[in-house]
Amino acid sequence: MSADELNNKRNSLIYLVTRFSSRVGAVVLVGMMLLMAGDVFLRFIFNKPVPGAFELIEIMMGAVVSLSIAYCGLRRGHVSVELITDKLPDRIRAPVDLVHHLVCIVFFATIAYKGSQQAIVIKENETVSTLLEVPIYPFVWLLVFGAMLLALVYFRQMIDHYFFKRGSK
Question: What pTM, to 2 d.p., does this model score?
Answer without folding.
Answer: 0.85
